[in-house]
Amino acid sequence: MSEEELDVVELTAVLESFVRMFIRLPAIQRLSFTTLSVLHTLARVGPMRLTELTASEQVTQSAVTQIVTKLERDGLVQRRPDPSDGRAVLVSVTAAGAAVVEGRRADRIGHLRTLVAALGDEERAAIAGALPALMRLTDLEAR
């Protein structure tokens, strides 16, 4: 199949709808999208400077600082001096923050499992067949 045969406009619309649904699946630990994004990023990537979080989350430094302050107050992240630069701090997820991320993931998996069960065998096979290509797209973008 050529690039012309894959309707990128349709792919975009479907992925946008799917991502919107997927983000909203968990019914637990409801926080703002950006707050959850910061928490998930720290859980996935590990400790980061505020400037790195600002770039990663595509929000202002002020917004990231406010989010981190709230997450720190709630015991979900912690700040500590950056060993490579004493003027900077690293923000990392705490055990409680990791538990929020894992709890939301488990809840999402449960909801998605129910939705997948409603699909036919061919639909499930089509999704399974698309997973390597979707992962490759994320790898390409990450580079």
Describe it.
The protein has 143 residues and is mainly alpha-helical. The protein has 6 helices and 3 strands. The protein is globular and about 55 Å long. The mean pLDDT is 92. Strands 1-3-2 form a 3-stranded antiparallel β-sheet.
Mean pLDDT: 92
In total, the number of strands is 3
Discrete helix count: 6
Strand order of the largest sheet: 1-3-2
Q: Work out the strand percent.
A: 5-15%
Structural class by sheet pairing and helices: mainly alpha
What gap, in angstroms, lies between the N and C termini? Answer: 24 Å
Question: What is the assembly state of the chains in this entry?
Answer: single chain
What gyration radius follows from the Cα positions, in whole Å?
18 Å
State the low-pLDDT regions, or none: none
Question: Could you describe the largest sheet, including whether it forms a barrel?
Answer: 3 strands, antiparallel
- Pattern of helices and strands: HHEHHEEHH
Helix content: 55-70%
Principal-axis shape equals globular
Task: Please outline the helices and strands.
Layout: H1 8-24, H2 33-45, E1 48-49, H3 50-57, H4 61-73, E2 77-82, E3 85-93, H5 95-117, H6 121-142
Antiparallel strand pairs: 1-3, 2-3
Helix pairs in contact: 2-4, 3-4
Key words describing this protein structure:
67% helix, globular, 143 residues, 6 helices, mainly alpha
Describe this structure in a few short sentences.
Helix content is 67%, strand content 12%. By secondary structure, it is mainly alpha-helical.
